[in-house]
Amino acid sequence: MTMLNKKKFSYTVNKKNFKIQTIGIVGLGYVGLPLMLKFTNSKKYNVIGLDVNKIKLQKLSQGISYISSIKNSELINIKKNKIILSNEFKNIKKCDVVIYALPTPLTDNKDPDMSFIRDAILKSKNFFKKNQIIILESTVYPGATKDYFANELKKKFVIGKNFFLGYSPEREDPGNKKFNISNITKLVSGYSKKCLIKCENIYNSINIKTKRVSTIETAELTKLFENIFRSVNIGLVNEMKLICDKMGLNIYELIEAAKSKPFGFKAFYPGPGLGGHCIPIDPYLLTWRAKKYGLSTKFIELSADINNSMPNFVIDKINHSLNQNKKNFSNSKILVVGVAYKKNINDTRESPSVEIIEKLILNKSKIFYHDNYVKELEIKNNGNIINLKSIKISSKNLNKFDVVCIITDHDYIDYEMIKNNSKMIVDCRGRFKLAKNIVSA
Question: For a pLDDT cut of 70, what percent of the chain falls above it?
Fold first, then answer.
């Protein structure tokens, strides 16, 4: 399924023994699409985008973005430069460089689900050729690049001599207006020194600053460490939130006070639970791997447990708010504001909103939601799928809900309108000062 015609041209980076014509990106999601755009906009390479999702390919061919942080106008060079968009892995043989940007979710047992990477390799392996460069950008456990790519490549090639393998973990933060692929330093690593240099040259050629690390495993573990650092600190502040709640103190005032210290403190903020593809998942990748070495990651697992408990804390606060007005779950109408996992994007992966909505529905509540970034939402209910649609909110209809729960605080939302027209508000993001009808969760 080739969406656009190939434009024939070549580009040679002014470095010894570095001649690259075609870059292939496998996986056009939140990591792969920005990366493909970076290579496309450089106008230095022929670019091929591969994805098994035909709907994504069709939208891209029409200049329609499916990622809220990427505007349609940013896709203009895809069509202008006649970039190949395809779900056919035979295009791999046309590439000098293939970069894999695929998801690595968890199984139900919290083990790494490597099926996306495994399937991509199975579909690609017959099209690998001598002197190709393969780079993995997915977040994986230490050793995964060698387990999946090196072990397969060794069957046909000598890595470091007639085939080259690197790992460069993604550092995407969808919706971040300050940092993006163009100004975030990229870690690079290689199976050998020659692999490392080739990997580094590719990113440097499109003006991405890089930092070398000595081994692929170091780069893999660094990526996990970065996100576990956040997970642990969020777990700490969420626990502080639970303590403050019992003591009748304001966690946000506590954080602002601590921030006045010019050293030794970094502010993290509490929330209704973790979301996205990194922080809720990465700790378990390391925990799983550590068990192979007979190690127990107690500190990491504890923070994950605290973070995973936060949706239930929100449910309890909603229940308490209903009880104040002599209501219960089964005879209540609840409005959830914000279902994306973070503000100002349309990504619902691992969103705590979804878990909270599912539990409220199980408790027989009538649930509505508002999110201009997410127009439709699939909710699981006893093995069935419930399709919800975002509703508009206004000063007229807010009063119809027994509780309005702020879970994701998009910037476009009129919080003053919500405050002035809602019976009860459960605030998970510290948007309001506490009042008789406002509860912090």
Answer: 96
Q: Kindly state whether residues 284 and 339 are assigned to the same domain.
A: yes
Confidence grade of residue 7 (pLDDT, cut at 50, 70, 90): very low
Alpha carbon separation from 191 to 125, 132, 218 (Å, rounded): 18, 14, 12
Per-residue pLDDT, averaged over 313-334, amounts to 95
**pLDDT one-digit tens code per residue, 231-264:** 999 999 999 999 999 999 999 999 999 999 999 9
Phi-psi region of 27 (alpha: psi -120 to 50; beta: other; left: phi over 0): left
Examine the domain organization and report whether 42 and 174 are in the same domain: yes
The one catalytic residue in 95, 199, 244, 278 is 278
Q: Residue 108 class from Cβ within 10 Å (0-12 exposed, 13-18 middle, 19+ buried)?
A: exposed
User: Structure tokens of 306?
Assistant: 């605290």
**Residue-range definition of the domain harbouring residue 312:** 230-440
Residue 222 lies in a domain: no
193 and 157 assigned to the same domain: yes
Specify whether the CB–CB gap between 50 and 32 falls below 8 A.
no
Asked if residue 218 is part of any domain, the answer here is no
Q: Can you give the CATH number for the domain in which 46 is found?
A: 3.40.50.720
**Based on the structure, what is the number of domains in the chain?**
2
User: Would residue 221 count as lying in a domain?
Assistant: no
Does residue 278 have an active-site annotation? yes
Amino acid at 283: P
- Cα dihedral across residues 47, 197, 172, 108: positive or negative: positive
Torsion of CA 370, 372, 378, 381, to 10 degrees: -10
* Structural domain includes residue 371: yes
Asked if residue 278 has pLDDT above 90, the reply is: no
Q: Are residues 301 and 361 in the same domain?
A: yes
| Model pLDDT, residue 382 | 85
DSSP secondary structure letter of residue 32:
H
Res. 3 pLDDT band, cuts 50 70 90: low
Whether residue 172 is found in the same domain as residue 250: no
Strands 403-406 and 19-20: unpaired
- pLDDT per residue as tens digits for the range 196-229: 999 999 999 999 999 999 999 999 999 999 999 9
Residues 167 and 56 placed together within one structural domain of the fold: yes
415 and 284 together in one domain: yes
Integer-rounded Cα radius of gyration of the chain: 24
